[in-house]
Amino acid sequence: MTGTLQTTEPQDIATIHGYHAHVYYRNEAERAEAAVLRNQIKARFEVIPGRWRDQPVGPHPLPMYQMAFATDVFPALTPWLMLNRRGLTVLVHPETGDEVSDHAIHPLWLGEVLDLDIDFLRAFAGRPGSA
Ligand code: ZN
To answer: Fewer CB within 10 Å of terminal CB in the chain, N or C?
Structure first.
């Protein structure tokens, strides 16, 4: 289902089949920090690194890259990012198959909360792809 209304029953965490961490940067200095962070993450955790997106793409208002990871990586990677995000804004969101809810309702922000373009996701709701 898609939408912003919560059902009355709590959603089972088994509906989460993975996570994304999106690491944002605003300029060359922050991009350099993001590069260090990217290598540190890859050296320590089982992640699938996404490509660099030097222009805003999809719902994301700033350049970024994405790291995809499994649910069993979350308890180690997330607190590590809390301590080591190098001043960068990081969005951690679950993947439940409902991209609108995953980005608009369920996300965990480390650092600044950015204004995602949720309307972009609504326009593509129900179609295959990832954000
Ligand atoms: Zn994502």
So the answer is: N
Confidence of residue 125 (pLDDT cuts 50, 70, 90): confident
Ligand 1 geometric centre to CA of 33 (Å): 20
Q: Give the Å distance between the CA of 130 and the centre of ligand 1.
A: 7
C-alpha closest to that of 47 among 29, 20, 9: 20
CA–centroid distance, residue 52 to ligand 1 (Å): 13
| 16-125 is classed CATH 2.40.170.20 | no
Cα(22) to centroid of ligand 1, in Å? 6
The predicted model scores a pTM of 0.88
